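Exercise 4. Each item below gives a protein and its sequence. For each, produce the structure-token representation.

Item: Glutamine--tRNA ligase (Scophthalmus maximus).
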Amino acid sequence: MADTLTLFSSIGLSEQKAKETLKNEALSSVLKDAITQRVNGASGVDKAMGTLLYSMASRLKDTKRLVFLSDSIAQRKICTELQLAAALDFLKSHPQDPINQKEFEEACGVGVVTTPEQIEDAVESVIKKHKEQLLKERYRFNMGLLMGEARSALKWADGKVIKNEVDMQVLHILGPKTEADLEKKSKVMLQQCEANAVEGKSLMEQLRGEALKFHRTGENYTTEGYVVTPNTMSLLKKHLEFTGGQIRTRFPPEPNGILHIGHAKAINFNFGYAKANDGICFLRYDDTNPEKEEEKYFTAIKDMVEWLGYTPYEVTHASDNFQQLYDLAVDLIRRGHAYVCHQKGEELKGHNAPPSPWKDRPIEESLVLFERMKKGLFAEGEATLRMKMVMEDGKMDPVAYRIKYTPHHRTGDKWCIYPTYDYTHCLCDSIENITHSLCTKEFQARRSSYYWLCNALDLYCPVQWEYGRLNLTYTVVSKRKIIKLVETGVVRDWDDPRLFTLTALRRRGFPPEAINNFCARVGVTVSQTTTEPHLLESCVREVLNETAPRVMAVLEPLKITIVNLPENSRSDVRVPDFPANEAKGSHMVPFTRTIFIEQSDFREKGYKRLTPEQPVGLRHAGYVISVQKVIKDAQGKVVGLEVNCCSSETAEKPKAFIHWVSEPLVCEVRLYDRLFLHKHPEDPSEVPSGFLSDINSNSLQVISSALVDTSVKGAKVLDKFQFERVGYFSLDPDSTADKLIFNRTVTLKEDPGKI
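Answer:
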């Protein structure tokens, strides 16, 4: 085991990742074979090759191809994830032996080298083709079209390099965005939002009763499937007298985990439907399982509801009604609808459980036994109270009460029997006079038991309406699986910004308005929705573009000395917080003889930004700089530049403008990517070795010595900024007075490779 751990660590896996891999026997065996058989141990395996071997081992379904594919990686024929994906596709579509080596290498781009000059020429050719329309529409032109055509022409080129070249050449042709560009963009976005509101309708419009065809309050009986009894109309009359015809909904989470993006839809649906129809919504904790509930979850749930902009009419708990629920259970036994059963838990699992031999025991006997359960005279699992009914999925006699000798966070040791969801949910809805019990589609199988129980006790019966739950690709939201991610060290906690819990999204910098807008765009649908993360990120960009002030930051600094300025030269430069609306404010940054730019903004030749032959403008500074001397270290790496500067008013207009910092703050920047490699990490057909084998080893990149202008010095936790030309960032709670830490919320533009 120790030798295998060392072997895995030697190819670049972190110790935690290596240990995690060892837990997966199938993946561990394949990866070990790939290394030892084909690469002669870990000798000569750098991290890039190790990452490819790991990715190959976790995705290869036909292990008889392991030797062939490992050889291709070891011989550096397959060098990128793009080539590996093509190789896996080729092998999948060519299952027969022998493999045609020539066809394989052609399909995978083996030996193909794409030079910067080829990328530059290809992008130039594509832009030339669309230049007339580009000049006409300027920054409103669909840049994704340019990116797509350039990638088609350069199949094996690095997509990020192509994107940078497209951005740079577009900037060269159009120049920096003007206020007119930004204003036009805002108007276009407004028109698109209005169009979407007409076509898809706003969230509030979708949630108005008429749009959803819900029943009117008091007219529950008009709903298809609603069960009408001789007492229904009188119960509805009393209900109407109590509510005054007001719509009443509830959001009923279990306090045993943190809310996730799917809950955001439920929150918007329940609170939004009440709000759109002048009703009220309760936040009710379904706290009937003391073994799994913690105070931190109660606090976090309420915090997230309020963060999304909703205020509960009242915060209630299922435990508020424990005595009433017990009294109703006694009544249910007296009416002959429930009985005490002694079948074990394992016997009751599944849909084909054997009939209970205690189903027809005398009512008085069940009453005595239920009282003994309450007094703690049975051991856990020795007795349950079951209801005499069949659920829609065929399950017989669901459990209403079970024994748990665990103190409850609110009632302490008062109770040792606790009601189940199937028993509690509808009765709490009835007690609170809920008009519309809104829940996700998987609860449809419980609708008949919902109606049965209320009617069996002659209580007011609300109407249960189901809607499709919201799912996102490239993530997991199950509490059990998130706990596993935390326990194995893949993520730090429930609020790790790579997760899609609401606390994680808040920490990453997602504005609540963006999440609500996303829920509106997804829409209120009956069918289950699976959505791509980039649609949520698009909503985030729209909000942050209007609300996040601009600052300048350099992630990978290159020192620039302006030699024609005096040693003690210093001036202040005004930077607008929102270039499209300078009336919203600005901040000052120093400009001195020493500045820092991004390393990627300089190249020694063949570049549209700064080169020894080509000057660039400095954003906001009013200067153009030109290279006088390139300073390199002993290994030939560029470590600094000496430049001259002149006023942009007298210099020829440069082809590009770049950002910079001077006398900056040193900060840490955390760049996040998708946590999983596959769209559906929980799908065994897509990820046979399980979701823990699908972790993206590059999902977090930490830059410990980034530089940011001093205007952010007084920022508060979760304050949001746009780092010009870089992305949107939010201040992390780990920040201290000595060092600020920023999380990248989203990039400035959508990455076409992730669509």
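Check: Residues 116-137 form the longest helix (22 residues).
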